[in-house]
């Protein structure tokens, strides 16, 4: 994509290491006119239940609140 992805709560399963996806950071600052806007990317903790197992089996989707405080 021509824009950054944000994902703060996706980790390699069983580790404290965030999964690294191309063009992805936990958060991103954008300037909209004269205003700076901060965006934190969070994926629902239900993702493993709503996505094909083989696509997420090695990932852990952590608590949304806890991920925003890190």
Compute the average pLDDT.
94
Q: Give Rg in angstroms.
A: 13 Å
What oligomeric state do the depicted chains represent?
Answer: single chain
Number of helices: 3
The outline comes out as elongated
Structural class label: alpha+beta
| Elements, N to C (H/E) | EEEEEHHEH
Q: Give start-end ranges of low-pLDDT stretches.
A: none
Widest β-sheet, arrangement of strands = 1-3
In which range does the helix fraction lie?
Answer: 10-25%
**Sheet with most strands:** 2 strands, parallel
Count of DSSP strands: 6
End-to-end CA span: 26 Å
* Percent in strands: 25-35%
Question: What does this molecule look like?
Answer:
The structure is a single chain. The chain is α+β, with helices and mostly antiparallel strands and 70 residues long. Strands 1-3 form a two-stranded parallel sheet. Strand 4 and strand 5 form a beta hairpin. The model has no long low-confidence stretch (mean pLDDT 94).
Q: Quick summary of this structure?
A:
By secondary structure, this protein is an alpha+beta fold. It has three helices and six strands; from the N terminus they run E-E-E-E-E-H-H-E-H.
Task: Walk me through the topology.
Layout: E1 5-6, E2 10-12, E3 24-25, E4 27-32, E5 35-40, H1 47-50, H2 53-56, E6 59-61, H3 64-69
């Amino acid at each position: 994509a021509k824009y950054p992805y944000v994902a703060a709560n996706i980790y390699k399963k069983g580790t404290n290491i965030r999964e690294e996806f191309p063009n992805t950071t936990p958060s991103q600052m954008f300037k909209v006119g004269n205003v700076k806007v901060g965006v934190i990317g969070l994926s629902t903790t239900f993702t493993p239940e709503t996505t094909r197992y083989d696509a997420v089996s090695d990932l852990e989707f952590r608590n949304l609140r806890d991920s925003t405080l890190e």
